[in-house]
Amino acid sequence: MSICLTLFVILLFTGLPLYVNLGLTSFLYIFMSGDNPMVVVQRITQAANSFTMLACPFFILMGNFMNTSGVTRKLFRFANTIVGTVPGGMGHANIICSMLFAGMSGTAVADAGGLGNIEIEAMREVGYDDDFSCAITAASAVLGPIIPPSLPMVILCVTVSASTGRAFVGGFGPGVVLALSLGIMVTYYAKKRNYPRNPRPSAKQVWIAFKEAFLALMAPIILLLAIYTGIVTTTEAAIVAALYSMLIGLFGYRDLKIRDIPKVMLSTCETTGVVLSIVMTANIFGYVLTVAQIPQKITMILTSINNKYVFLLVINLFLLFVGCFMEGTAAILILSPILFPIMLQMGVNETQAVLIIILNLMIGVVTPPVGIVLYVTSNVAKISADRVIKATLPFLIPLFITLLIVTYVPAVTTFLPTLVYG
After folding, report:
1. What is the rounded CA–CA span in Å between residue 215 and residue 235?
2. Mapping DSSP to helix (H, G, I), strand (E, B) and coil, where does residue 354 land?
3. C-alpha dihedral, 216 to 220 to 222 to 223, nearest 10°
4. SS3 annotation, 145-201
5. Contact 314, 262 (CB under 8 A)
6. Which residue in 130, 144, 194, 320 has its CB near the most CB atoms, within 10 A?
């Protein structure tokens, strides 16, 4: 097993696609151990054969429809109209827009890529530094996988058989705490650098901005109400939301054209293909780890920590380290089956455990060297990745503070699920 793990680590730094790396190292172990190669086919089939996992491509499709139909611009205009008059108004608008868009895309990369161009350009025009604009755009993108719906949350809940509905509801608390923490950081920088404010909007301007964004704002509301009232499952809600986003693009805003649909579908298929490839090969890799008794060894080490608070600190440090080097989806699929049962055994609430794992690994999207959102933001802003990384580092402080609150204040993640589900 040591040979396979060494090869896996080496291949991580070669630029080889992650699913190829997972598949190669897993098959090598199976071949070397004399196991039946048919287990590869069985594990791939098992990973893909999940009703809940069907929600992933439809959430991706919904986000793509929203991006193509210009919804992001309307959302940012609405958010800027509401909070643009406070210190660092556009920075706060950036955060609010990320919260709103999170209810449609569910991923940090889609948030940074879809909103980033609009937000950074608008902030640049009124005098905000590019470094600050990129930093808050990247940091606020972490809200995408925390505020429901969340693709990583769906994948994790399917992997460990946790309640997706409870996890979705539980994500609101950490999402609000994170938004407030980032907002404090924005206010500090705005006063220090004397960033401009917008003039106070009239009631008519607020109404116009709200009316433009109304159909888009209804998308997450319809989605979440449908799930929480039990009318539909998470998967069925994703299908409804994707259809709704297509209809408002075609007939509501009329910015989405019939000729755009094949391109949107193709983009969705490409993204889904990458996600499913990682899911399926990570399932094989997880099987290999189990056969090699890696989970049992890790369990023995972690359960030897008698203090729950120290245990949670160790889990956080480990996941933050992993998030710096491994793509979030793969880390979830490989580590959650190992860590999740141990966390439950140590008395951590199921929903809280889901959010701790998600938040840790999603912070990884804004931490070098892998930090994909940093590079997306750099590409959008047309500035060097080094500048974006340096500017984003101070914004890790509110992310870490939020993580500590989620870890050591269970009510942040458990209050709303208990209220909704009992």
Report:
1. 22
2. helix
3. 140
4. CCCCCCHHHHHHHHHHCCCHHHHHHHCHHHHHHHHHHHHHHHHHHHHHHCCCCCCCC
5. no
6. 144
> Percent of the chain having pLDDT more than 90?
16
* Prediction pTM value: 0.80
Element (H, E) at 339: helix 328-345
Least confidently predicted of 33-47, 129-143, 200-214, 329-343: 33-47
Q: What is the pLDDT of residue 111?
A: 59
Q: What pLDDT band is residue 183 in, cutting at 50, 70 and 90?
A: very high
Domain locations in the chain? 53-275+293-421
Query: For the chain, how many residues are written?
Result: 422
Task: For residues 366 and 358, give the distance between their C-alpha atoms in angstroms, rounded to a whole number.
Answer: 14
Sorting pLDDT into bands at 50, 70 and 90, what band is 184? very high
CA 147 – CA 232 distance, rounded (Å): 19
CA dihedral (320, 321, 325, 327) in degrees, to 10, reads -30
307-329: average pLDDT = 86
Amino acid in the structure at residue 160: V
Question: CA 254 to CA 130: how far, in whole Å?
Answer: 32
Q: By the 8 A CB rule, do 123 and 94 touch?
A: yes
Sign of the C-alpha dihedral computed for residues 334, 337, 340 and 342 taken in this order: negative
Averaged pLDDT, 19-37: 78
CB 373 within 8 A of CB 141: yes
Name the DSSP class of 143. Answer: G
CA geometry: angle at 340 spanning 374 and 39, to 5°?
A: 90
How many Cβ atoms are within 10 Å of 317's Cβ, its own excluded?
11
Cα end-to-end distance, the chain, whole Å = 44
| Structure token pair of residue 145 | 């996988």
